[in-house]
Amino acid sequence: MRGPVRKALYWHPDNGDAICDLCPHHCRIHPSETGLCKVRNFTEDRELYSLSYGFFSSLASDPVEKKPLYHWKPGSMILSIGSIGCNMWCPFCQNWQIASGMEKLELTRIDPDDIVRIAKERNLSCVAFTYNEPMINYEFIADAAPILRKNDLDIILVTNGMICKTPLEGILPYINAVNVDLKSFSNEGYRYIGGDMETVKKNIKIFFNYGIHLELTHLVVTGFNDHESEFNDLVNWVASISPDIILHISRYFPAYKWLKPPTSIGLMNSFHDIATRKLNYVYKGNIDGAVKTFCKNCGKTILERKGYRTVLKNLTQNGNCSFCGTDNGIVI
Ligand code: SF4
């Protein structure tokens, strides 16, 4: 990277150091050093900078189902972009090259107007900040979001939910849909992977109460979070907010430093059964076969996907069930 190029928001000086207030780690950063996410640098001139501002590692046109978002504009294509770095350190990270191996990556310089241009050229009406943790690239999102919205582009965040309340509130008005990765339901589990469960839970509630389209992903990792009691607690907590919150239970495959066997199909089925007792919309991810959405009222199939392709839609113009008219939280 050739940064620093943008002064960081949300930090304060303390005894010659910077305390970063963007995420719950609240890193103390000495001059010439970076925080845990490696993309916020406190320089000798005592200013905190975002090193990843405008630098992107990945850009692709994706089906929205790939994020995954199953109830938000099903069947649509979106522009996915990703930067570098992360504020957690999951040993089973599926995107570890961009989350942790930034030195070896080729990065492209992109500004918000480039994103608008690329989206329009590809006839896409939505941009997802995804692949790595977008919140640590906060300043870029904060600068780009009003420009994207002004150009009729929707905004999706795919996030681990590890951000402090005040900065989160600064971008909420611009966000249309979010997928939060709820990685564990134990404080110990979250500590192990460098996260804070209470922050993530609070932020899920903030997204929900703000009325942003919300879906959750839970990767079931062999030997990490594959205990039935923990999963029961997770499901009960989600259901206590709303049984209509969409939950994706994703199958893990060995990646990065975690080489335990893939999640067994039996466990995936058992967790799916547990979740469907309390929640109306539960999906198994990273498993072959068609994935259906059933109307919570009449039980008929209203959406069906094969791979990431939506192949059947029984929806009214406003996204309700075309058989009985029920609202299943599907945004068209
Ligand atoms: S955003 Fe980065 S530097 Fe700031 S507190 Fe979080 S991990 Fe530390």
Which SSEs are present, and which pair or pack?
Elements: E1 6-7, E2 11-14, E3 17-20, E4 28-29, E5 33-34, E6 40-42, E7 48-50, E8 55-56, E9 58-63, E10 77-82, H1 96-100, E11 108-109, H2 112-121, E12 126-129, H3 138-150, E13 154-159, H4 165-171, E14 177-181, H5 187-192, H6 197-210, E15 213-220, H7 228-241, E16 246-251, H8 265-276, E17 282-285, E18 291-294, E19 301-306, E20 309-313
Parallel strand pairs: 10-12, 12-13, 13-14, 14-15, 15-16, 16-17
Antiparallel strand pairs: 1-7, 2-3, 3-4, 5-6, 6-7, 8-11, 9-10, 18-19, 19-20
The structure holds iron/sulfur cluster (SF4).
Please provide the count of β strands: 20
Contiguous runs where pLDDT drops below 50 for at least 5 residues: none
| End-to-end CA span | 39 Å
Number of helices: 8
Q: Radius of gyration, rounded?
A: 20 Å
Q: List ligands, each type once.
A: iron/sulfur cluster
Residue share in helix: 10-25%
Beta-strand share of residues: 25-35%
Given helix and strand content, the structural type is: alpha/beta
Tell me about the largest β-sheet.
8 strands, mixed
- Taken from the alpha-carbon principal axes, the silhouette is globular
Query: If strands are numbered along the chain, what order do they take across the biggest sheet?
Result: 9-10-12-13-14-15-16-17
Average pLDDT figure: 96
The sequence of SSEs as H and E is EEEEEEEEEEHEHEHEHEHHEHEHEEEE
